[in-house]
Amino acid sequence: MDLLLSLLVVSAVTPSVVLQDRPRSAVLHLSAGAPEVFIGETVTLTCHVPGEPSGWTFVWYKDGAPVQQLGTVGEGRYTLRPALPHHGGQYSCQGLRARAWPQRSLPSEPISIRVTGGWVILQTPPQPLLRGAGATLTCRVRGNPRLQQVVFHKDGRVLARQSGPQLHLASLSPRDEGLYGCRATWGKRWGWKTAESPEVGVSVRDLLSEPVMEVLTETPVRRGQDLVLRCRAQLTPRRPGLRLRYSFLRGGQRLGVASSQDRHVVRSAAARHSGRYWCRATVDGLGLGKSSEPVLVRVIEDEEAELESTGPSRPEHPTDPTQAQNSPGSSQSPSPETSPSSFWNLTESSAWEAMTPGNTTL
User: What is the pLDDT of residues 33-51, one digit of tens each?
Assistant: First the structure.
């Protein structure tokens, strides 16, 4: 019985921290064809879950609903052959795996497929395009005849007149977003033919989202608790080979080394661990990184936690108020409003200075 009580006391005083892996997002990409194709051509979509390639089966969606056997499914691939106009739409996928317990990935970002029966199409890489990267737009004519002239335009304004079918956009930025199209002229036996493509929207996105620092431990943190931090950042899934590394800092002091773990645990937090925490996410091999906004963390004693949860205790008074006032040994207790705090009775500015890196150590 004593052993059981001891275990209960230890578990109550030293809370455990269980770090669970978040579900991974499935990644969808085009392994054959393009987002814009002619009727009768082939499009193949491939789905996988990064870091865990085996044991997955995949559910396919078109415009948010499970597909009704529009194409051929197998080995993480979904093929439209031949592509028909009703195949056009937004496709996505999700991984399922049954092991010790069922696992489900997060859905992939969608890829838009457009199937046309016209003469000319403008082919773009899968959207969205990445900020700072380059992209090539291709003006295609059915049957791939020799072209006399190609005119590229954006939002109704001519960008280029040339004989080649490709237009390269370098170092993309948000100003490159818009509606693009092309007009092609080519020779036929009886003369020349000119046709216009449908317009295609181009969007540009940052490769790395803005990191957000999260405190997973309930705040204010009690002394002796584990302080659990998480850095939330996301890569655009169009680049599945890239990996993020995370750094955690308090003020200007780095906490350990950068790693692929998006969480950091400060064991048995004490008052000296109070301060401003922030994180930085960097893309391995590219030198690209972004930092989060700082988050203020306060570590308090158990007594302070009790005061914050219940408020200051009131002194006991005798039944007869006049007896309390006239009693020789009585003394008036200080008002709770005027009693100094044991630790945090600082001005806002002095409390902030007390948490700067120069005044805190791990």
Answer: 899 999 999 999 999 888 7
